[in-house]
Write a structure and sequence with these properties.
- Helices cover 59% and strands 0% of the residues.
- With 61 residues, the chain is mainly alpha-helical.
- The mean pLDDT is 88.
Length: 61
Amino acid sequence: MDNSQQPDLDEIEGWLLAVVDGRETRDSADRWAHRWVTDDKLCWGDVEWWALRARAAGLTK
């Protein structure tokens, strides 16, 4: 789970599954997703954008 290159759908899914499996906390996954959601220089596919925004939404609640 490298933080230097834009994640692909497999990496995003890996973070979601890590939360479900208990290997990552919701907070750490939210912060990881928020890092990518707030980078305006990146382009996302619809599914990737939905998944990242859904995960990062935990920081705004």
